[in-house]
Write a structure and sequence with these properties.
The protein has about 325 residues and is of the alpha/beta class. The protein has 7 helices and 19 strands.
């Protein structure tokens, strides 16, 4: 790899790439093990939770907590154990040999004995201006995170795959009515998931519909859809809803590592089952960048703990 040669080369035991519940928790455990971790926060310090309003399912907060406050609390705990938390973005890596070389902001080189990757995943959105306007105020990309706030209300979810079907049926258990917006004339989901959708009475699938606009005042109150009618005709459909969910998947933030790590077809970093170990010894992955199933703050935090323990044991074996 052709690296920009920085003026300053820093050598450390443990580098955490990315913040959020996984990265900060990894740092807490690594710091308490005297690994003197350095965190490079990335473009979204604190991760996806910083764009969330109320969080009611993270242990230790019986009255709930906002996403930004939760992340500041976990960050403060990491700092209490003298974690070195830095602004910046990792722009290049070289995992061909230890110590592993990482370039930050194209100007500083860090040589790390172990690397913990916690870069997360980015939820896919439709790209509507109104979608961004109401994000956190009726627009959500996580039904299991935010569905509770719409108990007894009417909501819509976009998507036709397994994820959308699973989240739609989850919402149906809480909400009065769930509209499933599918742009094709069929569901892409597995037969089992399709059957679950069909057997859910308060779930209505709107085939061949596309979302044109999300409407509201301070919060979401409705959506405007475009219904395809034959080859060329279409009509506008308006629905009153209280919440709008995205079920079209996530994109793991793993592109920078693809030359070295084993990554699946959807971009998730593969880890040895039951561990955070990647195909490269001394490089570990935790949180949503490797979680294809749960994608919750508490599971991300748990996997951050695993990564730090794995890193500590790895260094102990080297000594």
């Amino acid at each position: 790899m052709d690296f920009f040669k920085p003026m300053n080369i820093e050598k450390i035991k443990c580098l955490v790439i990315g913040s959020g519940p996984a990265g900060y928790t990894a740092a807490i455990y690594a710091a308490r093990a005297n690994l003197k971790p350095v965190i490079i926060q990335g473009m979204e310090p604190g991760g996806q939770l910083t764009t969330t309003t109320e969080v009611e399912n993270f242990p230790g907060y019986p009255e709930g907590v906002t996403g930004p406050v939760l992340m500041e609390d976990i960050k403060a705990q990491a700092e209490r154990f003298e974690t070195d938390i830095r602004w910046g973005e990792v722009t290049k890596v070289d995992f061909s040999k230890r110590p592993y070389r990482v370039i930050v902001d194209d100007e500083q080189q860090i040589d790390a004995e172990t690397v913990i990757i916690s870069t997360g995943a980015t939820a896919k959105y439709l790209g509507l201006e109104s979608e961004n306007k109401y994000k956190g105020f009726g627009v959500s990309a996580c039904a299991t995170c935010d569905g509770f706030f719409y108990k007894g209300k009417d909501v819509a979810i976009v998507g036709g795959g397994d994820t959308a079907c699973e989240e739609a049926t989850y919402l149906a258990g809480l909400c009065n009515k769930v509209y499933m917006i599918v742009r094709k004339d069929y569901l892409r989901a597995s037969k089992a998931m399709q059957k679950r959708v069909e057997n859910t009475k308060n779930l209505e699938v709107l085939y061949e519909h596309n979302t044109k606009e999300i409407t509201g005042d301070k919060v979401v109150t409705g959506i405007t859809l475009i219904k395809r009618m034959g080859e060329t005709d279409e009509k506008e459909v308006k629905l009153k809803i209280d919440g709008f969910f995205l079920g079209i998947g996530h994109k793991p933030n793993s592109d920078i590592f693809k030359d070295y790590l084993d990554i699946d077809e959807n971009g998730y970093i593969n880890t040895v089952p039951g561990t955070s170990k990647t195909n490269i010894k001394g490089v570990f992955a935790c949180g949503d960048v490797q979680d294809t199933t749960y994608k919750q703050a508490v599971t991300a935090a748990g996997s951050g703990c695993m990564a730090a323990l794995d890193a500590e044991r790895f260094l102990g074996e080297q000594e």
